[in-house]
Model the fold of this input.
Amino acid sequence: MHFGLNENQAILRDSAREFFAGECPMAFVRRAAESATAFDLQLWTKLAAQGYTGIIVDEAHGGVGLGVVELVLLMEEAGRALLPGPLFATVAMAGAVLDSCANPTHQQQFLAPIAHGDARSTLAFVEPTSGWDRSALRLTAKNGRLSGEKLFVPDAGVADTIVIVARDDVYVVDAKASGVSITPMAGMDVTRKLYAVSLTEVAAEKLDAVAGLDRALDIAITALAAEMVGGMQRMLDVTVDYAKTRKQFGKPIGSFQAVQHQCADMYLETESARSAVYYAAVALQEGAADASAAVSIAKLYASDACRTVGNRAIQIHGGMGFTWENDLHLYYRRAKASETMLGDATFHRERLARLVVDGRPA
Amino acid sequence: MDLNLSPEEKRFRDELRAWLEQHAPNHREHRRDASMEQQFAFLRSWQKTLYDGGWAGISWPREYGGRGASLMQQVIFWQELARVSAPPMANVIGLGMVGPTIIAFGTEAQKARFLPGILSADEIWCQGFSEPNAGSDLAGLQSDGRLDGEHFVVNGQKVWTSYGWAADWCELVVRTDPAVPKHKGLTVMLVDMKSPGIEVRPLRQMTGESEFSEVFFRDVRVPVANVVGKVNQGWDVSIGTLMHERGTLGAGMQVTYQRNIERLIELSRTIERGGRPAAEDPLIRQKLAQCYAEVQIMRANQMRAFSRISSTGVPGPEGSIQKIFWSELNQRLQQVAQELLGPYGQLEAADRHAIDHGAWSYGYLRARGNTIEAGTSEIQRNIIGHFVLGLPRSY
Done:
């Protein structure tokens, strides 16, 4: 038994960290946040050149054919850098669904362009009254056409295709197709833009294997929790650095236990979330019986932890942490948006209860 | 990453499982309403059974009667014992701390004299570390050892001495040079608990049991030959003692917690709230799920830490969070149990209405000690702050 990264995985993580440190410094994040779409084509081309857009896509469709663990490591590093734009929506949401649900023809049509870096995509799920509860979805196709409204769709404004989860099936639509209307929603997270997608008799391609959706969503949830772990790690790092240098009463504030113990708790929460995410990734990769439970455990813990880590980080920074100029609020905003995205802690505790208290599938 | 046991680990587990099937005691024999002495005799005989089967001190090197078990084998060992609800071994201090310390720092004569008795439970050990004024600040201890010919003469008081009242021997740390800074003048020595001048008073704890004792030393003569390591270099020996086992015992605790949360889930199906099974109450479901999740995360944290130690030889930083995690988790879990059981939660073993023979009222009270024993949560957070995160010392 070995629950740790192998050599190739460690190399992937380290090179992703280095890549994002170079290509996505905070000045870049801030520029993206102030733009309408938070998208930068030049960076996207580089992400594709690194193989990141095709990380879980098999080689036959232009990807590098790696697994869930590698996806999770990539997303953790993206989260640490607060990477703006559609990498998560394209690769971990739409990409995972296309990988699990699409037949080879559809994969060639929709997934290969993603892997090559030629197309962006996203996943439309939430409806006005559904939250992230799939059983509450109402959207259905009539004569192969979709009509209805999807909300909180990440990065739809820069997507070429949109994967749509309807009540009974999963579809792909061309974002530019007639009948598709995409309007920005003013979300708290300025680095991941949200959109309302309104569909009026839109021509849609139905994916064959809707049964693959559960696994695809589990992969997306785990990748999101990994991104949150990366964000927590960054908040911990900058806070510890601040506590070592900021002085009051003639001493670094990090020498006061009231501050030190908050840092210790941030560390405990970050490492525990990381353990939960890695375990979920391995369980998904190996098709373990407890994989869905592990995914919900990772997301429920990360959802609560990223909020408390953010709270502690800003508290320790004092007034400086409350300013626009300090970067923490950008992480804090992302943390809050991610907390609810793909189901918050309460949602996943109930899902876990269905699995382990009721003993029925989620 | 590979979560499966290797063929060799699996072989080890299967051999142990088969043995336990034959030999594990019915845990009902280990009754909480039996006298302290009866319970201890039971734990001693259980260790002897393990010893006869070759399962006592598995982490010890073969030349000293152990099995030279790998870290993962130790993890499996504690997991399997917990899985069959096996009681602890009587000589837990001897096996986990004193023995490894003697192996690391002791003389050949000390090894030959003491190690066999630790394994067989013929000689029970305690550890004289904490004092009334030296708990978290262990190096501030005041017990005094003065050289007098071939003996040290020891005076002072120890407290929180686990199994002190049952012990034949004590690994004692005393101050032998009061003139030097506090970490420097300490010496570790092995003391016969039958020596004249030793008085042991069991400390009754809030659960009603006496896991701990106070031990008083008045002019107790300890042969110089019983010093472990060098005189005045006892701090290194003591820290070595506290570092042993490297948390593999925690793997057994995780399995116990897993069994506890599964038992609570089972109980939630029959206990009613508002005329329906508690398992259907949304708030209870949230709390059970949260506990269940944290028990799994405890396991994932441990597995990461053990894998790190196995591959690099040193504990990773995630190791330092284990103590806080398990102790605070157990307190939360016991509180959820109390909420689920309602008025029945308070009933102790003697009451005929008690659920699970009073295990939950006992568990609730016992868990209160978890964030204090083996390094308080406050000290653990200081350790993370200073040694892991590199923040300036707070004291």
